[in-house]
Design a protein that fits this description.
With about 800 residues, the chain is an alpha+beta fold. The protein is built from 25 helices and 20 strands. The chain is about 40% helix and about 15% strand. This is C2H2-type domain-containing protein.
Amino acid sequence: MSFKCPLCMRIFSQRFAYTQHAQKCLKNVEVEVEEHDDNNDSEKYSSEMNTRSNLSSEYENDKVEVDDDNDVQNMSFDSIGSAISEMSLKDSNFENILDSSEEPEIFEEPKNLNTKTCTEFPNDAYKDLMLLVTKYKINNKGGNEIIRFFNKHSNLTESPLPKNIEQGRAFMNNMKFSNLEFSKVLITKHEDKDYFLYYQNLIQCIKNILTVPDITQNFALSYENYEYNRESIYSEQNTGKWWKTTQESLPTGSKLLSIILYSDATTTDTLGKSQLHPIYITLGNIPIWRRNKQDAKQLLGYLPILEAANKDLVRDTFHKSLRHLLEPIILLKDGIDLFINNENTWFYPRVSTIIADWPEAASFCLVYKSSNSNLPCHSCLVKRENLANIDLSVNDVILRTHDEMRKHFENDTQRSVCIESVHNFFWDLPNINIYLTTVPDRMHHLDLGLFRYQIIFTCDILKSQHVNGNKLVEEVDRRLAAIPRFPGIKIFSNGLQSIARLTASEYRSLMKVMIFVIDNLYDENNNEVDNFVNNDDLTKLYEYWNEMYILSRYEEFSESDLEKFNDAIHRWARMFVKAFKFVSPSNLKLPKLHSWVYHIIDSIRSYGAINGYTTETYESLHKYFVKIPYQISNKKDVEPQLLRTIKRQAISIRMSQHSVNPAKTPRTCKFSARFFEFSLQDANTFFNKKKDSVDNKMQTGFARFISCLDSYLDLLDGFTIIVWFSDIAISMDSEESNDYISDKGLCYGQALLLAEVLTDSPLNLALIQWYDFIAIFKMVRFSNLRSCQQKKEFEFQNLCNIVICPIRF
């Protein structure tokens, strides 16, 4: 027997459940009727009831109304997590629930849903549920099962959760945060179809980046003329020549805000039938090691992709979109004030570099994309027949400039310099040369470009220059498959058969082993083959490649390093041309080869180390801002759905950060045992007496303790430092971070002695010996780990890299 509620038409299999529901349902209806009777609007009430009924999901029958009772609001969502953890993941139904690819999520907001604009969730349980669903990308069906499970086992008369996940998502979509709002603007209309730019305000994007915890800890505010042994050092962007010249052009007292853009159209599905064109932003003021993390970048927008036979219209649409995104740079004639490190700073935003692959760079520069054009390089006016020439002089490599290109455009002679018949928006931006700003990207130039060519041409040589060429290629495959497993090395069990589908990471794995695979692969030219390539030369080619590639990954370059790097590039390039010129269909007329040989060194001098402008750390952004949101959309009108998904993810991250447990207050170090106790006035006598009975570390500590203690006591403040047993790690101030050798902003040392100076206010001190330390530095607070008390700038000379500091545990 079943029981049907006459008010909401719900069906119950048990009388007890029906009785409980009927009392509550009747009460809710009476309240709603009173409210509508006051307005004499019974027809509207009836229509609303019908609409609610139509919006009910398949799980509606198992949900109860959300109430604002205080006890419910204070309820934690921990009960849901603990209950879920008890469920068996072996249940195939539950596995299907968590599979977000099973049911495409439709993000259209339900109509007539009572969702108010706010910035907070109704209660903690509601918030934790939606954060859970958003974080783990649980689809509607899975989320509704969680709600059903909670309502069944919570024994609450009123549920704190939404009726269904659709309602929860709609609630999050309506939450208003000024820094999470996206807009759209019509860029063009073609064949009765509107093409919109979906974007976030540029200045708001910058502010969002600056709100990330610790992002401004080593924020560069000025040009740094970093020298070592009287040689200029290029590392961070603020050590490059572009920063220096741009800073000199700004008003006195203002700071440069360096904007880095990354743009790359990407497919949204495995078949490549649909595409999106995201553009991202980060700041060159952030140190490279920190900037390469995902949270240091922001999605600026989705550029419209126009499919039209008129290519000039496509290019014009692209640059109109860029103008709309970057126009604040032109409009902010007096700069902008930003809150950095607890104080307002006057900035002028400027575009420093644009990271893109070769076709994308041609779109930014509006030069001919074809490598068969007369002047195929977007940075200079080199002729196509000279692309494989490794010995060009400076006069042969004439750089493109805005003035020259604009002059050709205005005189209608753009074809002579191979630029498109569309006005380039970047000509109007200050302090930028778009033809140099689109820097060579290591991943596309080397990993997916020149090294891929090198592998393909190697196989072609083995096939064409030897009688048993196919057997040699099979031997290469066999050697690759025979390499034993090792951490960090990918095993190519199928050899090079799938080379067309290899990723950049897989090509980097090949670089590590190919020299051993090629070595002693074949004999000399016994068959007198023309243009024969010796096995030793081919092996040297891979050796030269590895030397060049390792140098490209340096974190900083001195002028002598650049000379060494330039020599390595030319040595490899000459061998590359010599070996493959006769097997290349184009005779190695490769724009990437020319760009790498002639433009990468100047890019380092202008914009710092290559690690600061490579797409290796940007490609993963497509996963979070395009591919995953697309997979859980309904595949129609996807941009608004993707932006709502991204907004909910941002809300989830923000709410999760607010709920992080505060760090524990550090407590003062207590010495449990003492090796020695002595008076400071008798310290030298005591040290001489004990030096033969202690180890080398203590002997070094004794030798430097008094001089370091004198330096410390002359100071009013100490510095912040982290102590892990005998190991030390510190983070450095950006203004002096290049005065010593570091590991991504960290410097390391070892505690030689822990000492307690017994005075009116006892001092707990550590004697530290730094690793690879260079003279002058400044300590700042690092994370929330065990740390010392204070911070101060020091200058130590002739102390064998040993300092003394106060400690806390």
